[in-house]
Amino acid sequence: MKDLMRNLDREHAYREHKCWRQYITVVVSVCFCFFQLYATLSGAITAQILRATHLAFVQLLAFLLFPATKKSPKDTLPWYDVVLGLLGAACWMYIVINFQNIVRRAGMYQSLDVIVAVAGILILFESCRRIVGLPIMIIAACFILYAFVGRYLPGFLNHRGYSLERVATHLFYNTEGIMGTPIGACSTFIFLFILFGALLEKTGIGQFFIDICNSIAGGASGGPAKVAVLTSALLGTVSGSSVSNTVGSGSFTIPMMKKLGYKSEFAGAVEAAASTGGQLMPPIMGAAAFLMAESLGLPYITIVKAAVIPAILYFTGIFITVHLEAHKLGLKGLPREQLPKFLPLFLRKGYMLLPLVVIVTFLCMGKTAVYAAIMGIVSCLLIGLVTSFVDLAHGRKPTFGFNDLLEVMCSAARNIISVAIACAMAGIIIGIVTLTGIGLKFGAGLISISHGIAFITLFLTMISSIILGMGAPTTANYLITSTITAGAIIGLGFEPLAAHMFAFYFGIIADITPPVALAAIAGAAIAKAKPMKTAFNATKLAIGAFIIPYIFVFNPQMLMIGTTVSGVIGICVTALVGMFGFSVALEGYAFRKVSVVERILFAAAGLMCVVPETYSDVIGLSIIAVLIAWQLVRNRIERKTATAK
User: Fold this and answer.
1) Average pLDDT for 555-572
2) How far is CA 421 from its chain centroid?
3) N or C: which end of the chain has fewer CB within 10 A?
4) Average pLDDT for residues 313-317, to the nearest whole number?
5) pLDDT tens string 518-546
6) Residue 154 falls within a domain, yes or no?
7) How confident is the model at residue 3 (pLDDT cuts 50, 70, 90)?
C-alpha cells in the first residue's frame, strides 16, 4: 500500500532518512512546530514575518524530504537538494532580516531585492513540481506569462503589461501575492489543524472509525460497502486527501466487498466516491473550510454549517445506491460473530472521539478556529498521557511516549509542506489576478460566452472547475477554482458562499472524474480492476455531487442561508427522498427491478424533491410514493401467484 501511495500521491513520495540525515529532518521539523506554536500562542510575530518564516521552513523541508523525481533514490540526500533547500529558505529569511528596510523603502526595490524575489519564485516552482504536481504549476506559470504578454492579447484579456521587476516584487514581497491570504491561513490555523490531525492519527482513531462502522453496518446487506461509505465520511473529517483516504480505508473495505460478491470495479468505485466525498465533509474539508472562511471574510462555523446538508446528501446517495446494489445481487452482510459489538467498543474506545467533540463544541460556542484547534490539541495530549499512565499501571508499554510526540511533529511538518506550497502557488495566481484584473475579466468573459444565461454560465464554470481541479490536492483545488471561476457565478448576482462551494464541489469531484480520476485509480489498483471503468462507476455513484451544487446556487437555503430550523428539516427530508429517487433510477432497482419508464419517473421525481420549492417537493414526493406503492403491490401479487401455484 505504501508503494501505491507513493505512485499516486506525491505527498507520500518522501524520503525516509536513516542515520545522521534523520536527525537533521527531525530537528528542523520540531523547530518548525515549536515556532508555529509560539507564534500562535504569543501573537508577538507580525503577519509578514510569520508567513515568510513559515515558507522558509517549508522550502528547507521540501528539498530535504522530497526527491527530484519518482525514480530518484529515497535513501540518499544529494548535495544539490541541500543547496536548493538552503537557498529557498534564505530567500524568505531575506524578508525577515530586512523587513524594516523593505517597509521603509515603500516599493522602491533594489537590484538585490529583485534577484532574491526571482530566485525565491523559481525555487518555489521546483518544489511545487516535486510535491504538488504539474497542474497548478502550469496554471501559475501561464498567469505569470499573461502578466508579461497581456499588452499583445485581444479583447477582454488585454492589459498594459508589466516588467519582470514589477511582477517579481509584487508576487514576492506583497501581501496580495505569495504571502497573501492563503499562506496567512496556512501559517496559522491550518497548521494547527494538521498538527491536531497527526495527533489524532497517533491515537488510532482511523482503526476505531473502521471498527465502529463495522459494528453499525457490517452485518447489514452489502455490509462492507456500507462500512466503506461510513468510514470514509468519518475519516474525511480529519483526512486531507482523497487518495490517501481511498488507500487507507480501501485496503480493508475493498477486499471485503469483493469477497462478499461485489464486482471489482464497483468495489473500487464505492471507496473512491466515498473517500472523495470526505473532502466535502465538515468540519475540516481538507483544510478548504478555513481558506473559504478567510477568502469570504465569514466565520468558520458559517462555512461548516453551509457544508453539512450537501455533504449528508452526497453520502446518502452513495449509501442508498450501495444498499440497492446489494439487494439486487442478493448480497448478505458479514457474520455478526466476526464483528465488534458497538456498546463494548464504544465504552472501551469512545474517548478517542473527545478531541473532535471538543473542537466542534468550541466552534459552536463561537470561539475562533485557532482556539478550537489548540483545545483539540490539548485534549489529544491529555488522552495520550492518561492512556500511557493506565498502560504503566497495568505493566504495559505506554501507548503514547516521547518518541510518539516526535513522530507527530515530524508528520505535521511533512504534511503541511504540500498545503503551504499549494497556498503559495495559489498566491501567485491571486497576485496576478489583483495586478491585471483578469479575475473580473474572466468572469465577464464566461458571462459573455453564455449570454448571461445562468444555467449555461454554471455549466461552463462546472467544466472549468473539473479541468482545473484534476490532479490538484484539496487546498490547491479550492484556491484555483474559486479564484478563477467563482467570480463568474458571483457576477450573475448569486450568493458568494454558494459560488465558492459550487466551484469547490466540482474541483473536488475531479478526483473521480475521467480521465485523471486519481482516487478512482487508487481504488482500482487495490481492487485489481480497470481504472476507467472504476472511474465511470464512481462518477455514477457520486451523481449527487453533480446535481446538488446547482440546487444550492439557485436556492441557498440548502446552505442554511436565510432559512429557519423547520425549513432546514423540510429541505433535508425532501432532498433525502430525492436522492433515493436518483439512486433507484441509476441502479434500476428499488424493491424489485424497475422498467425504463419507471427509471425516468424516479429520476424526474428525485430532481423535483431535491429542488427546495414547495410545489416541486409535493409533486416529487407524490410520484415516488406512487411508484413505491406500485412496486410493493406487484411484489405482493407475484408472491400470491407463486403461493397459489
Assistant:
1) 81
2) 16
3) C
4) 86
5) 888 888 888 888 888 898 888 888 887 88
6) yes
7) low
Amino acid sitting at position 247: V
Q: How many CB atoms lie within 10 A of CB 378?
A: 14
Find out whether 458 and 505 touch, Cβ atoms under 8 Å: no
Q: Nearest Cα to 321, choosing from 19, 590, 34?
A: 590
Candidates 186, 241, 237; CA nearest to 32 is 186
Q: Note whether residue 124 is domain-resident.
A: yes
Choose one of 157, 172, 187: the last residue of a domain.
Answer: 172
Residue 352 lies inside a defined structural domain of this protein: no
- Look at the chain and report how many structural domains it folds into: 2
CA–CA distance, 145 with 125 (Å, rounded to integer):
14
Nearest to 523 by CA among 125, 169, 131, 255: 255
Alpha carbon 178 to its chain's center: 21
- Whether 488 is in a domain gets the answer no
Give 473-526 pLDDT, tens digit per residue: 777 778 878 877 888 888 888 899 999 999 888 888 888 888 778 888 888 888
Range of the domain at 644: 563-645
Q: What is the 3-state secondary structure (H, E, C) of 123-162?
A: HHHHHHHHHCCHHHHHHHHHHHHHHHHHHHCCHHHCCCCC
Mean pLDDT of the chain: 84
For the chain, the residue count is 645
All three cell numbers of 597? 419508464
Q: How crowded is residue 564: how many other Cβ atoms within 10 Å of its Cβ?
A: 10
Q: How many Å apart are CA 456 and CA 462, to the nearest integer?
A: 10
Q: Measured between alpha carbons, how far is 250 from 252 in angstroms, rounded to an integer? A: 5
* Residue with the three cell numbers 483526512: 239
DSSP 174: S
Rounded to an integer, what distance in angstroms lies between the CA atom of residue 245 and that of residue 270? 12
Q: What percent of the chain has pLDDT over 70?
A: 95
- What is the residue type of 119? A
Instruction: Give DSSP secondary structure letters for 429-493.
Output: HHHHHHHH-HHHHHHHHHHHHTTT-HHHHHHHHHHHHHHHHTT--HHHHHHHHHHHTHHHHHHTT
Q: What is the pLDDT of residue 91?
A: 96
Cell numbers 427530508 correspond to 573
β-pair partners for 593: 589
Cα–Cα distance measured from residue 612 to residue 99, given in angstroms and rounded to the nearest whole number: 53
Q: Can you give 491-558 as a three-state secondary structure string?
A: HCCCCHHHHHHHHHHHHHHHHCCCCCCHHHHHHHHHHCCCHHHHHHHHHHHCHHHHHHHHHHHHCHHH
298 in helix, strand or coil? coil
Over residues 421-473, the pLDDT tens digits come to 988 988 898 888 888 877 667 767 777 777 778 888 888 888 888 887 777 77
pLDDT at 470: 77
Count of beta carbons in the 10 Å neighbourhood of residue 492: 18
Q: Where are the alpha helices (H) located in 152-281, listed in sequence order?
A: 164-173, 181-185, 191-202, 205-217, 223-235, 242-260, 264-277
pLDDT at 264 over 70: yes
Give residue-wise pLDDT tens across range 9-38.
555 667 776 767 778 899 999 999 999 999
Of 324, 416, 459, which Cα lies nearest the Cα of 127?
416
Grade residue 124 by pLDDT with cuts at 50, 70 and 90. Answer: very high
Query: What phi and psi, each to the nearest 5 degrees, are found at residue 593?
Result: -65, 140
Residue with cell 436565510: 562
Sequence-distant (≥ 6) Cβ neighbours of residue 570 within 8 angstroms: 617
Torsion sign across C-alpha atoms 580, 494, 447, 511: negative
Q: Do 192 and 40 meet the contact criterion of CB atoms below 8 Å apart?
A: yes
The residue out of 134, 151, 172 marking a domain boundary is 172
In the numeric block, the cell 479564484 is attached to 483
Integer CA distances (angstroms), 630 to 30, 591, 592, 637, in order? 65, 10, 10, 11
